[in-house]
Design brief:
By secondary structure, the protein is of the alpha+beta class. It has four helices and nine strands; from the N terminus they run E-H-E-E-E-E-E-E-E-H-H-H-E.
């Protein structure tokens, strides 16, 4: 089922997400709905707060980027209660966008590689080192779990230049090719 993507300005996007218990009801259905929503919106990652749920859950599929970023080949994951345990000292600046901030793209710094621990949708624990653009995707989505969005990482001047777009997103006056839920719309 395709769910609406919550847009910038919704309070749920600024909450610290809660851990998911091992017996969370209908987890596999929720994961399937999140993948459906992400694919429909042509995204490569989606965090549960972006569909209005303050839960530490992320779905990822970087395959569409594998032509430009080989580390994204077969990079499909479900991250339950992820924790980034280690960040590289090296940072790389690249442009990002976000389903919750349609029409806004900015260069932001991210660690070149990370080490992350998480459970998958079957409860299996993983400890994984991820690099390159795949690591960028994970960092971007984990930021959502901590109440952040990628524009928090840009300069005040760049934020000011995007102010009109941000206000339109909050008011719900932007057009998207996917279902959304704007903060300013009932």
């Amino acid at each position: 089922m395709i769910l609406p993507v919550y847009l910038y300005g919704h309070p749920v996007l600024r909450e610290e997400a809660k851990e998911i218990s091992a017996d969370y009801p209908a987890l596999k259905e929720l994961v399937a709905n999140m993948f459906d929503t992400m694919y429909h919106a042509e995204g490569v990652g989606l965090a549960a707060p972006q569909i209005g749920l303050s839960l530490r859950l992320i779905v990822l599929d970087g395959e569409t980027l594998s032509g430009d970023f080989k580390e994204c080949k077969n990079f499909k994951r479900v991250l339950v209660n992820p924790v980034i345990e280690e960040y590289s000292d090296e940072e790389i600046w690249l442009e990002e966008g976000c389903l919750s901030l349609p029409g806004i793209h900015e260069k932001v710094p991210r660690a070149a590689w990370i080490r992350i621990t998480y459970a998958d949708e079957n409860g299996l624990r993983h400890d994984e080192r991820i690099q390159g653009f795949a690591a960028r995707i994970v960092q971007h989505e984990c930021e959502h779990l901590n109440g952040g969005v990628f524009i928090d990482n840009i300069s005040p001047i760049r934020r000011q230049l995007n102010k009109g777009k941000l206000n339109n997103i909050i008011k719900g006056t932007i057009l998207c090719d996917y279902k959304t839920k704007a903060a300013g719309k009932k």
